[in-house]
Amino acid sequence: MIQKTLKQLAEIIKIDNDISKFQQTMISGICIDSRKLEKGNLFVPLKGENVDGHKFVEAAIKNGAAAALWQKDMPNPPLHLPLLIVEDTLLAIQQLARSYRKQLNIKVIGITGSNGKTTTKDMTAHLLSLKYKVQKTEGNYNNHLGLPLTILQLREDTEFAVLEMGMNHPGEIDFLTKLALPDAVVITNIGESHLENLGSRAGIAAAKLEIMNGLQDNGLVVYYGDELLLKEYFDQYYGNAVVKTFGREKSNDLFPNDMEQGEKGNYFSINKQEGNFYLPVLGIHNVLNALAAMQVAHHFHIPFAIMNEGFAHLKLTGMRMELVKGAKGEKIINDAYNASPTSMKAAFELIESMKGYKRKIVVLGDILELGTETEAYHEAIGNLLDPDQIDYVFTYGKLGEKIADGAKKSFPANRLFSFLEKEVLITELKARTTGDEIILVKASRAMKLEQVVDALTK
């Protein structure tokens, strides 16, 4: 993690106060939450909608922070403490991260995409760790604040950093990639998320392709070759990057020969290596995420032959195809972290393929940021539900009602339920579970459907 004296920090970021009294004070690491403070940290207060971190500066230093930043427009800075007064504390974090990244002798892998980027990040980190010291984005720290904080926590002996890059608007990936300066980039796919801000799938593709703007000379590009919007771009690409594709089609550099869904994961084989691989993650679509990770790892001299070793110890970030056991013995697929029409379809294919259950139930909620066609997308999702494969459909939220409207065309009323109150949904769902079910729970993050999962486990 970053370790600097206040004098060295002042050479990186512009400060507006005299620090001569404290210039040899050493900081180790950055903290923005006083509850997670570690001794020696630089505490960085941020102005949020509900909480202003400046209120905690004095307590943070008292509790072990070596120093703190202070935003210039905030009154009454405690100048008797080791303080750096800056124009903007968020901007200061970004400037420090940019400087620290250039200081590190490290390979950076940047990962973006509409779906699967967190899972691909986790897989890539596990495969690279077979040979190297690896750190990765923790949780969903993938934006203009999270990515700089991740960089500032990198250890100097780390050899690879696997960094997730998310966005809602044009220009955001451009900022992140120019800060991270990746040696390899992955684009997992192009879906429908953020249509509200980007207008079309072509607009989403253009925003994801901004990741190329920070790629280092002779770097690696791995992209989903079955996506025409990406293929069209790279067919016209004349840069010096090494370009590799993955996907289902045999025209890709890496593709699966066979894929089989197991009880808790997937078996598959590839065109580049004899033998089978086992991925302990549900969903055939996750085999494609694994292929992307395998392409990166192989480029950096990890043999395909040993990659099962990396998959065997794979642990994914929570609420992504997470198999949970309910209180009655029912199995729950907790995929409540996020959703899009594309990932909904993949989740339906998964639950339909799972054998050995007397009943199959889906609990679905609103998908956000889909733009002007939001209601049509939700109805289309309802149309995808097959009453011969799914026994009960539960929806939650205003847009969830549109999913139910789409499902009404094929589902009888006694198998289709729509709710605006989560507690009522939970009560009705519990009344219909006996322990022999597999239940899929999926929606956009803001719907907090993990609360349904939690209720079923109690």
TrEMBL record:
Claim: tRNA-binding is one of the keywords in the record: no
GO terms under biological process: cell division; cell wall organization; peptidoglycan biosynthetic process; regulation of cell shape
Gene3D superfamilies, A to Z: Mur ligase, C-terminal domain, Mur-like, catalytic domain, MurE/MurF, N-terminal domain
Primary location: cytoplasm
GO molecular function, one term: UDP-N-acetylmuramoyl-tripeptide-D-alanyl-D-alanine ligase activity
Keywords of the record: ATP-binding, Cell cycle, Cell division, Cell shape, Cell wall biogenesis/degradation, Cytoplasm, Ligase, Nucleotide-binding, Peptidoglycan synthesis
Binding site for ATP: G113, S114, N115, G116, K117, T118, T119
Mur ligase C-terminal domain span: 319-445
Compartment(s) where it occurs, according to its Swiss-Prot or TrEMBL record: Cytoplasm
Record has Cell division as a keyword: yes
Catalytic activity: D-alanyl-D-alanine + UDP-N-acetyl-alpha-D-muramoyl-L-alanyl-gamma-D-glutamyl-meso-2,6-diaminopimelate + ATP = UDP-N-acetyl-alpha-D-muramoyl-L-alanyl-gamma-D-glutamyl-meso-2,6-diaminopimeloyl-D-alanyl-D-alanine + ADP + phosphate + H(+)
Transmembrane residue ranges: none
Pathway connected to this protein: Cell wall biogenesis; peptidoglycan biosynthesis
Annotated ranges, domain Mur ligase central: 111-296
Domain Mur ligase N-terminal catalytic as annotated: residue spans: 27-100
EC number: 6.3.2.10
Cellular component terms (Gene Ontology): cytoplasm
Listed NCBIfam families: murF
Function description: Involved in cell wall formation. Catalyzes the final step in the synthesis of UDP-N-acetylmuramoyl-pentapeptide, the precursor of murein.
Family, similarity comment: Belongs to the MurCDEF family. MurF subfamily.
Protein name: UDP-N-acetylmuramoyl-tripeptide--D-alanyl-D-alanine ligase
Organism: Bacillus aquiflavi
Gene this protein is translated from: murF
